[in-house]
Amino acid sequence: MNISPLQKARYEYVPKLPGMLRGGIAEISVKEGAATQSVADQEKIKALFPNTYGEKEITFEKGKNTSPVKKQVVGVILSGGQAPGGHNVICGLYDALKATDPDNVLLGFKGGPSGLTDDNYLVFEDDYIDQFRNTGGFDIIGSGRTKLETEEQFKVAAEVCKKHGVTAIVIIGGDDSNTNAAVLAEYFAAHKTGVQVIGCPKTIDGDLKNEDIECSFGFDTATKTYSELIGNIERDANSAKKYWHFIKVMGRSASHVALECALETQPNICLIGEEVAAKKMSLSAIADQIADSVAKRAAKGMNFGVAIIPEGIVEFVPEFSVLIAEINELLAGGKADAFNALPSWDAKYAFIEKGLTKESMAVFAILPQSIQQQLFLDRDPHGNVQVSLIESEKLFSALVADNLAQRKKAGTYNGKFSAQHHFFGYEGRDAFPSNFDADYCYSLGYNAFMLIQYGYNGYLSKVSNLSRPAEEWKAGGMPITKMMNIERRNGQDKPVIRKALVELDGKPFKYFEENREKWAAETCFKYPGAIQYYGPAEVCDLTTVTLALEKG
């Protein structure tokens, strides 16, 4: 296998564990805390999870290991999109498992949750797992998005576990994946299979977060990767002084990535979807806000700038959400075929004009034609608009160009405006994990095995106090049901882990809010540079600005 010098060096990196997990398996004891309840809808969640609801939070500490001695055969699953550090979760799990008993076995189910139901797996050995230590990606066993949610799937999963003598399953995933982990844990408990299920919190979007989960893994590396690229573009913009760069970043349901990148790079503009929704901002109001920055800078001779746009921004715009709902209804029930059969865009436009309300048509009419057509070309399996495919960076630059043209006619603007467009998504999902993510993920995996060894089921591996050095991190676990509420999904009430949105009264957003007016008018760019793996701890082990502000 061809490997780079950095990859070879990273194989040798030894991840740092929390203090209570250092010193050997025999010296890790457990302390139980208070019983828990779900974040909302307590009676409904309790009724759905009678065997796993209300369990206690636990913390590991130094002391005699009192866990029962038994051979463990653990299965691990990577679920959903990639996030830097996933390999280290598996490495930490493997090392703890083997340190406890060399005869313990770790099975990797291939291609995501379907690997479990298809009985498609590999057995991890030292030589194989050592090729993936401290590396990015999920290629160690692959990932997938199959949901484990039907009685038939659970039955098959139980049969596969019984066939191989599996004692526990670790599911590494985001909010939906860990919801599935909780449901699977409940099924295994109700049917007395003896199989435990443990979850690990993954998502670069940062929306698997609450008072217990300070940060999902991968967020640190992804935002540092995007911020390096944004900083490079800022440096280029400040050098060439002739382009406005509109940069879309990951984050459909929440704007954590955009906010963190803004805190790291100090661009002229950063849109926060949660603020757009709270203020009920229209597309034209957003365009006006960006155009104000362009005009202020142009008046100082600065015809350049940088704007960060979260991937899911249009879903936060109330008038756009109504438009999407009307388009979905317009093409429902087979009417999409009739629409697609129309001979020209003019004919299709007339069809659209006839089917939309006056208010939604007014919104549709101001969109660039390319965006209008995107709304009707790409549909998901349910026939709905795929909002994540909308090129919102191009949408807003076009709206700003129109706004500035009107200002020029009115004599209130006399600058130059030329836009460049970028989308940073896949670039950050598989990067070499930062030291923070390498340490955090290894700790999550190591900790997950301790939860298994002590017999816990339906728990999430939890490592906290993350703004401090790793020695001071705290390891333990919490029942997944603690994070749940009931939400309406596809016409049904479903138990799900509540997504964490950007808190507009939180310290990270408040800091951004206090500074953005200055950033909009002046050139205050910061250039974070590449992720550093070797050197002083204050550079190499630096956490996110978000976490630093939240924890003071």
Tell me the layout of helices and strands.
Elements: H1 5-11, E1 28-35, H2 42-48, E2 56-62, E3 73-78, H3 86-100, E4 105-109, H4 114-117, E5 121-123, H5 126-129, H6 151-164, E6 168-173, H7 175-190, E7 196-201, H8 219-240, E8 244-249, H9 256-265, E9 269-270, H10 273-278, H11 283-299, E10 305-310, H12 313-316, H13 318-330, H14 335-340, H15 345-355, H16 358-365, H17 369-377, H18 392-410, E11 419-424, H19 426-429, H20 435-453, E12 459-464, E13 474-479, E14 484-489, E15 492-497, H21 507-521, H22 537-540, H23 545-551
Parallel strand pairs: 3-4, 3-6, 6-7, 7-12, 8-10, 8-11, 9-10
Antiparallel strand pairs: 1-2, 2-13, 4-5, 12-13, 14-15
Summarize the structure.
With 552 residues, the chain is an alpha/beta fold. It is 44% helix and 15% strand.
Commentary on this structure:
With 552 residues, the protein is α/β, with parallel strands linked by helices. The chain has 2 domains: 49-218 and 433-481, 3-Layer(aba) Sandwich (Rossmann fold), CATH 3.40.50.450; 219-425 and 506-551, Phosphofructokinase domain (Rossmann fold). It is built from 23 helices and 15 strands. The strands form 3 sheets. Strands 1-2-13-12-7-6-3-4-5 form a 9-stranded mixed β-sheet, with helices on both faces. Strands 9-10-8-11 form a 4-stranded parallel β-sheet, with helices on both faces. Strands 14-15 form a two-stranded antiparallel ribbon. Helix 8 (219-240) packs across helix 9 (256-265). The radius of gyration is 25 Å and the shape is globular. The two termini are 45 Å apart.
